[in-house]
Amino acid sequence: MTHSEHEPPGAGLADRHGRVATDLRVSLTDRCNLRCTYCMPAEGLDWLPNPALLTDAEIVRLIDVAVHRLGVTDVRFTGGEPLLRRGLTEIVRAVAALPGRPRMMLTTNGIGLSRLAAPLADAGLDRVNVSLDTTDPARFKTITRRDRHADVVEGLAAAAAAGLLPVKMNAVLLHGVNDDEAAELLRFALDRGYELRFIEQMPLDAGHTWRREEMVTAAEILARLRAEFTLLPDPAVRGGAPAETWVVEGRTDIGGAPARVGVIASVSSPFCGACDRTRLTADGAVRSCLFSQEETDLRSALRGGATDEELADLWRKAMWAKPAGHGINDPRFLQPARPMSAIGG
Known about the structure:
Layout: H1 3-6, E1 13-14, E2 20-21, E3 23-27, H2 56-70, E4 74-78, H3 88-96, E5 103-108, H4 113-123, E6 127-131, H5 137-144, H6 149-161, E7 168-171, H7 182-192, E8 195-199, H8 218-226, E9 231-233, E10 244-252, E11 258-264, E12 277-280, E13 285-287, E14 296-297, H9 299-303, H10 308-320, H11 340-343
Parallel strand pairs: 3-4, 3-12, 4-5, 5-6, 6-7, 7-8, 8-11
Antiparallel strand pairs: 1-2, 9-10, 10-11, 12-13, 13-14
Helix pairs in contact: 2-3, 2-10, 3-4, 4-6
C-alpha cells in the first residue's frame, strides 16, 4: 500500500473513494422538546451532561477550522432540537463574521421558530428546514406525543416572513399513521411556497425497532404524489444533495420559480457515492457518516491545547477513513449505538 493510501492528501476533507466533504453538520444539543415515535421513547433519553457539550466558543472555533483549513463551504446546525441551544443566535452571528463565511442552514422542529426566525436571519442564518409530518393536529400529537402543531405552522410562516428562503419542509411517512398524507403535505407546502422533502424512515431510532418492511419507500411516496400531481424531471444538477427532486408542473414557489418536491431515499436508493458531508456531534466528535460505528474525539484535543492545524489534521484523518457506503442494505449492517437525536441530522 502506498503512503497516499494511508494518509489524506491535500488540505481538504478527502476520503479514499474520491469524495471531498464540504458540508458540515453541527449538532448543538442532543435534547429535544418532542418525542417522535420513530426517534425516541416517550420518557426521553439520558441527555449529555453540560460539561460534555462543546461551549459556544469551541463550536465557533471548530467551524473556523473547518472553513479556513478544511474547505467547508456549508454549515447546517442540527440537534436534537437546535433552537433549545441558548447561544444559538450568537453562534450564528460569530460564524457569519468569519472571513469568507460559509452558507448557514438550520434543521429544526419549528417550535420556537416564530420567536427566533427574525433574530436568526438578522444574525446571518441563510435558511431553514422545518420538520412537519402531518397537516392534522391530532395526528401530530400522536406522532410527536406533544400538542404543538400550531407552533410549527407559525414557525414556518415566521421563517418565510424573515426571508429564510427557500423554506424547506421535511416529512417522514409512517405506514398506518400518516402514509395517506403524501399529496396533502405537498399541497400544504405548495400553497405556502415551501419546498417539501420526504425522507425515508432510517434505522436511527433510540429503541432500535426500525424494520425495513415497515418503511414507506421513495417509490411508494412518488406513486402517491403522481396520482394527484404531474412531476417533471428537475433540470438542476443534484450534485451531493441528498434529495432527488422533481418540478411540480403548474406551481411556483414564493419567488415565482418552478415549485419543487424532493425525496431522500437513504435506504432504498443510497446516494453514498456523491456524499459531501462531515458531522460534528454536540460533544465534539467527528463522524464521517450518519451511520458510522466509529468517531474521532476533537473535544479532548481542543481542551488539551491542540493548535488549529492539529485539530484539522485529526479531522482529515477521520474523513480519510470514511467507508464507501453506509451499508444499510448489507445483511451485516449494525445500527449505530447513538440515536439520531445524539448524532444530528
